[in-house]
Amino acid sequence: MRRSAIVAMAAALASADAHAAQHGDQPHTGDAVLGGKEHRAGHGRHMSMEAVDSAPIGLMGDHLMHKGRFALSFRSMRMSMEGNRIGTDEATPEEIVTTVPNRFFGAPMQPPTLRVVPTEMDMDMLMIGAIYAPTDWLTLMAMANIVRKEMDHITFQGPMGTNRLGTFTTASSGFGDTRLAGLVRLLRSETGGVSHNAHLNLGLSLPTGSITETDRILTPTGATPSPRLPYPMQLGSGTVDFEPGATYTGRSGAIAWGAQYRATLRSGTNDEGYALGDAHEATAWGQYGPAPWVAFSVRGRFRAQAPIDGIDPTIVAPAQTADPDFQGGDRFDVGVGVNFVGRAGAIKGHRLGVEALLPTYQDLNGPQLETDWTLTLGWRKTF
Fold it and tell me: Cα 286 to chain center, whole Å?
């Protein structure tokens, strides 16, 4: 479904670009593009909008818009995880339940080692954004998230051994946290046909996602209660989070490049007694636009996240996902993507992008599910 939509969009874009070239169309847009040719006529702005002017679709907050412009965006992201890793080493379920201590050992019905192991998880996120530029040096953004998570588990029988009792799946869905951000321009220059732009990313995440989700599980004794789900299955952080960062972009002809740093800093503990670990992310990318309506990208991303600080006293289970110390870690991903932009006719001003991220390095804190891939598909329209 996604592949056919992208192919159809590409065909329409190529046709529209040919029409634009033949008739000299100059689409009207509010994007502050890098290296684009801007023409002023009266009080309006017309510029040659090209696909290479937008960063890979998996990246947000990459450029400002012109004063008075408004945009809507939709992004659909899926992250798939399968198999476990301790640090940088792969670990089987049998290894985990016979060697990894249960931090809750000594509490009623808590065995000495872990007995429930996740084997696979999928997370889908729909991100709906609105963007407005009150001035040329400031762009405001708001984004709501709808999240669905599903995790498969194996339960091992009794307090020890490797006999598998059965499997079960838990799920949670609903609104995630809401993000607000402002992009503040620091630099805009062009010398010798090479443009340079830089801005601050000043973000705030509001705790609109639930952190009290429950579902039915299978315990090592064969019981099937419905307790509060562990931390990875909750929908939000429960805290107000600060998201500072900075972005640089450049362009010369059909080549564009950029780099961005962003952090997620927790303001304190949430109502359940814990705070997700602070996170730091650095990314750099390059793009090539063989035609104005299409651009191909490659990107590298490094992300580091600390373990959870504190503990939810209602999350008690012989499972790695219930241990605050077994959260976070370091990961390096390599991404490839493609951007399309409509330049004439009915699709003028529409942007479509797709990007796949594949991990090349993962160093996880204790036993955790490893990430296999992340796919993002997005659309944006500037008015």
Answer: 19
